[in-house]
Design a protein that fits this description.
disordered C terminus; 8 helices; mainly alpha
Length: 145
């Protein structure tokens, strides 16, 4: 720490309990291969049983531990990941039906229902809110001098 004249007058720092941090992160390591698989194969039909095998667990143990660590079931997690990907695609999309297909949903109506369940609004409302927000945030262009 320096005073107003730039002279060193003290030292400041912080510490963290490394073991406590490791204990918090450790449970998620057992799901690392499962999460990586989900990220790479999100648009496919993903079997929870396959995810359990990737994590070297029985199906019931996998589902129980997954819910314990992520506060949602594996199916809910997959749904949230797909909706998150849809949120990324929707701003530039011309067709909501196309986004539904690209994110692995069967059709637009099912996609809209699931999207509304997770986000709280329909995909169209989401697109509209983004468009409205971007027009409110834009700064006026200055005329050339």
């Amino acid at each position: 720490i320096r005073n107003q004249h730039g002279e060193v007058i003290g030292i400041e720092g912080f510490s963290r309990d490394a073991q406590r941090s490791q204990d918090i992160i450790a449970p998620f390591h057992e799901f690392k291969s499962c999460i990586e698989y989900l990220q790479e194969h999100l648009m496919e039909n993903i079997s929870i049983d396959h995810l359990a095998r990737l994590s070297c667990m029985s199906l019931s143990t996998f589902e129980r531990k997954f819910k314990q660590h992520f506060s949602m079931t594996p199916k809910q997690y997959i749904l949230h990941m797909k909706v998150h990907e849809a949120c990324r695609l929707l701003p530039g999309a011309q067709s909501i039906a196309r986004v539904a297909l690209e994110t692995g949903f069967g059709g637009q109506s099912y996609f809209t229902k699931q999207f509304r369940t997770v986000v709280g609004i329909t995909p169209k409302q989401y697109q509209f809110s983004l468009a409205r927000r971007s027009t409110c945030v834009r700064r006026p262009r200055l005329a050339p001098s």
